[in-house]
Amino acid sequence: MNEPMNDPMNDPTRQMTNSRQVLSRLRTLMSEEAGGQTRLDAITDLMAQEMHVEVCSIYLFRDEETLELCATQGLNPEAVHQTRMRLGEGLVGRIAKHGQIINTDNAPGTRGFRYMPETGEEAYSSFLGVPIQRLGETLGVMVVQSKEVRTYSEEEVGVIEVVAMVIAEMTELGAFVGDGAALSARHQRPVLFNGTVAQEGAAAGQVWLHEPRVVVANPIAEDPEREMERLNTAVEELRVGVDRMLSTAAKGDKEQLQVLEAYRMFANSKGWMRRMEEDIGLGLSAEAAVEKEQSTARARMSQVTDPYLRERLHDLDDLSNRLLRILTGQGKETGAEMPESPVLVARNIGPAELLDYGRQLKGIVLEEGSVGSHAAIVARALALPLIVHADRITTEALNGDPILVDGDQGAVHLRPDDTVVSAFRDKMAMQAKAQERYASIRDLPAETLCGRRVALHMNAGLMADLPSLDSSGAEAVGLFRTELQFLTNSHMPKRSELSQVYARVMDAAKDKRVVFRTLDIGSDKVLPYMRAVQEPNPALGWRAVRVALDKPGVMRMQVQAIIRAAAGRPLTLMFPFVAQREEFTRSRAEVDKAIERERILGHPLPASLEVGAMLETPSLAFAPDTLYRDVDFLSIGGNDLKQFFFAADRENELVRRRYDTLNVSFLTFIETIVDRCAALETPLSFCGEDAGRPIEAACLAAIGMRTLSMRPASIGPVKSILRRTNLDDLRDVIHQAREDGLQSVRGPVMEHLRSKL
Ligand code: PEP
Ligand code: MG
Question: Relative to the CA of 481, which ligand 1 atom is closest?
Fold first, then answer.
């Protein structure tokens, strides 16, 4: 019997060997000393030879919209750096736009084909083009063409894909830097990101990546078996790690469990493993194979609109990063030195991690995040400019890149050019000048031109805030948000721990008053170690004093801790989110009980006690007079009050800026509260973010508010404007605008202040 003839074209190992050979030659080529253009030319030569095609070309992005032919074997050499196409134009432009391969035996007959006479490509019928991508970002397109009418085999597509991936990796490492504009390495161009401001301020510094990108320095491997083994060992380690996380995860935290389950599913996914093994078979190293799959998932992520699917692709992305770290040994500690003025860049960050960095940072830019996130609360407490929703910044930024954060506009300039730098420098200089001005009035009272005194207090939430009491000239801490100690902990803090923190806060404040607000959790502030309750409308849900009264254990513990910390000193307490009188009286009763308990135990009692409520729901404005007499003081939480007044979620980008604080309805509402408090002699303050905005603060003072509590950095600007304002005149302007039927008083107020200041 005749042995069947071995058809080399059908031998599955043949193509593998070929692709490995191609990659091996590519590696040799890349290791030679050469300029960028020479390298690209050599790659196109090599690929044309190995693939037995007449044409091999490389197109790279020249700018965000234009691709340029950067190297070719087979097309007219004169066309190099001359032929350009816009994103979406022609077959190459389409590949770049959609990140998808085109493989056709009849290029001129394919939809979108554009004839480019200068290249002489009309003679070629078959066409295979693949995107050159790194981590889902398209850097260019690689094309092979031949006269023969044929479609390229799966293996051939695989080879080109792998080579494209290596080119992308090399681009990252700067292998093509040098000759020609379009050959510049990625990550060299200036990029502007327009994000959302979560904390105002300006910062200039250098990028510090919270999770540095893993750099795959060896995309090509000689020994596939060894790479398979490396991959298998790393995946095993990954699986064990995920199982460990699952076994220790908080059982009540559905979201975390869902993410971890997704991790486990991906870590055990046969399809994922198979694709990576195939890539290794083609000649990639284990880490390059992981990155190739990650890149495909990222490209898909940008196309998918379903939020659930997007989340899962994100999970796969996270998991790939973990696997890459295991494979390369590059953890968070990459050995890189933190730059002098670090601006933290991350996809997202937890509050505890942010606190660890502390004030050494100059600013923070997050790809995700939200204005009301815990990280944002910490950033605010640390007075660090914070921009969220800076889409794709973690893909663009490299450690050490110059970066400017404009927390007024929400703009982030990465690798800014000289004009931007100098404009920004001017802006910072103006701000520094203003700071000097504020410093010069630090010890002067906020006394208006009409002789009224407005007390300026500061909001705080961390020990680290306390030095600002002196430097800002604040007269007191008008709001100490106590939830940060709970949010940044992985377990419920103990009474003794809390007591120590509160005592240190009072020590640091010396004889200045500190208004401790009891725990305000629920809604956006979810404790990681407490069972999360699924609520359709968390902002209107089981939060703050409602939780405290239904489950009084934590409130009792906290109140005891604060009383113990006071030990012989005056104590001021305030309950958040009181919506009706009974909530206040029951909470107050808890405080009285706690004092009694301390007395029985023989512990020193506070020298004096004031207990107040936050007015954050419109209902409290209309509560019976008895409430106004029960409380020792009221403090308007304008952030919440405004969201309920206008029914506009304070965290929803679509609506949160929709209604002006200086809207006549809102201002009139505040004025009625001021008048009621004056008539009933209830001390009143305002501690929402608006208290720290100079124009808003002046208007609040004009309608009778005499205590404003704000971020420390706002005290100077607010004092400065108040000292130059006549509140009677300003009140007349506000009332006139109301009589004139205007929607907001902002226009006339600004005009008035401009003419006077
Ligand atoms: C407010 O609602 O205005 C307030 C000061 O409280 P928080 O921002 O912590 O909800
Ligand atoms: Mg509030």
Answer: 9
Ligand nearest to the CA of 687: 1
Active site residue 699: no
Using the predicted structure, report yes or no on whether residue 431 has a pLDDT greater than 90.
no
Ligand 1, atom nearest to 689 Cα: 3
The number of the ligand 1 atom at minimal distance from the alpha carbon of 637 is 3
Beta bridge partner(s), residue 71: 58
Q: Ligand 1: distance of its center to the CA of 638 in Å?
A: 7
Tell me if domain 448-453+641-681+683-757 and domain 476-633 are identical in fold: yes
98 in active site: no
Four-residue CA torsion sign, 5, 11, 14, 19: positive
Topology annotation, domain 191-212+334-430: Glucose Oxidase; domain 1 (3.50.30)
How far, in Å, are 240, 548, 560, 636 from residue 575 at the CA level?
Answer: 45, 10, 15, 12
CB of 637 shorter than 6 A to ligand 1: yes
For the chain, the average pLDDT equals 87
Q: Is the pTM of this model over 0.85?
A: no
| CATH domain 224-328 topology | Enzyme I; Chain A, domain 2 (1.10.274)
**For ligand 1, mutation pick of 371, 574, 687 (most atoms within 8 Å of CB):** 687
Looking at residue 571, what DSSP letter applies? Answer: E
pLDDT band at 15; cut points 50, 70, 90: very low
Report the alpha-carbon distance of residue 671 to residue 734 in Å, rounded: 11
Question: Residue with the nearest Cα to atom 1 of ligand 1?
Answer: 637
The span from the CA of 730 to the CA of 749, in Å, is: 7
pLDDT band at 211 (very low <50, low <70, confident <90, very high): confident
pLDDT band at 9 (very low <50, low <70, confident <90, very high): very low
- pLDDT for 611 beyond 80: yes
pLDDT band at 14 (very low <50, low <70, confident <90, very high): very low
Domain with residues 448-453+641-681+683-757, CATH architecture: Alpha-Beta Barrel (3.20)
Does the pLDDT at position 258 exceed 90? no
Among 41-45, 304-308, 718-722, which is the least confidently predicted range?
304-308
Question: What was the pLDDT predicted at 6?
Answer: 42
- Around ion ligand 2, residues with a beta carbon closer than 5 Å are 616, 637, 640
Among protein residues, the one whose CA lies closest to atom 9 of ligand 1: 481
Strands 455-460 and 411-414, bridge-based pairing:
unpaired
- Distance (angstroms) between ligand 1 centre and the Cα of 251 equals 30
Distance from chain centroid for Cα 406: 15
Pocket test for ligand 1, best of 199, 543, 616 (most atoms within 8 A of CB): 616
**CA separation for the pair 88, 197 (Å, rounded):** 33
